[in-house]
């Protein structure tokens, strides 16, 4: 909650003191200290990977190719233009499916979170669909929609929908009743009350749901591309397995991890801006 709640020109000061923001000594004294700390474990894992393959020979090149072999495989795909195509189509599918699922999750979650009648009618049904495994939807989507882009985007949207719906539904059901009454006392009702009082109160929960939904979108992407696709990182996984190209298989896994982290970081930046503005 901000230090002052502005409602129709009036202000109500918030007497609750804010705890001091803690920062690690390294991140405070060293520029980019947070990045340095975060890079420690990946660098150690890369070093262990190199030792287990090139130095000790614990694993064969078929079981676990060396890091330079994976890099060479990526360079070959980059020079042929295939690498960019696989990454671009997968990123496009994830972002589109995530956007659709997040919007629907926000809308339905808000409806059920604000209406007791809608919650009683629809929540048991939505909860039952939430329990259906992701792969269970694939045969039905292939039968109804086919193997084109629509089926993949729909599957990803299903994966992104439920975390967002659950987060906003639960958060709105537990908004401070006194805060809502204060908004109504200043003449806010309906959509205006939702946008001015209730949604700002649940911003942290909403972004937690969005970040979880984004991770789910990447998981559902792989499920979609593993079963019916001719391009994308999931397809690269399957093709590499069938051809015995473990170097390309590991490359696809690394790229999925990097793209997932990149998109989560961008969403985290948006979250910080939203928290400063509303929460």
Automatic annotation (TrEMBL):
<keyword id="KW-1003">Cell membrane</keyword>
<protein>
    <submittedName>
        <fullName>Sulfonate transport system permease protein</fullName>
    </submittedName>
</protein>
<keyword id="KW-1133">Transmembrane helix</keyword>
<feature type="transmembrane region" description="Helical">
    <location>
        <begin position="218"/>
        <end position="237"/>
    </location>
</feature>
<keyword id="KW-0812">Transmembrane</keyword>
<feature type="transmembrane region" description="Helical">
    <location>
        <begin position="153"/>
        <end position="172"/>
    </location>
</feature>
<feature type="transmembrane region" description="Helical">
    <location>
        <begin position="127"/>
        <end position="147"/>
    </location>
</feature>
<keyword id="KW-0813">Transport</keyword>
<dbReference type="InterPro" id="IPR035906">
    <property type="entry name" value="MetI-like_sf"/>
</dbReference>
<feature type="domain" description="ABC transmembrane type-1">
    <location>
        <begin position="87"/>
        <end position="268"/>
    </location>
</feature>
<comment type="similarity">
    <text>Belongs to the binding-protein-dependent transport system permease family.</text>
</comment>
<feature type="transmembrane region" description="Helical">
    <location>
        <begin position="249"/>
        <end position="270"/>
    </location>
</feature>
<feature type="transmembrane region" description="Helical">
    <location>
        <begin position="30"/>
        <end position="52"/>
    </location>
</feature>
<keyword id="KW-0472">Membrane</keyword>
<feature type="region of interest" description="Disordered">
    <location>
        <begin position="1"/>
        <end position="25"/>
    </location>
</feature>
<feature type="transmembrane region" description="Helical">
    <location>
        <begin position="94"/>
        <end position="115"/>
    </location>
</feature>
<dbReference type="Pfam" id="PF00528">
    <property type="entry name" value="BPD_transp_1"/>
</dbReference>
<feature type="transmembrane region" description="Helical">
    <location>
        <begin position="193"/>
        <end position="212"/>
    </location>
</feature>
<dbReference type="InterPro" id="IPR000515">
    <property type="entry name" value="MetI-like"/>
</dbReference>
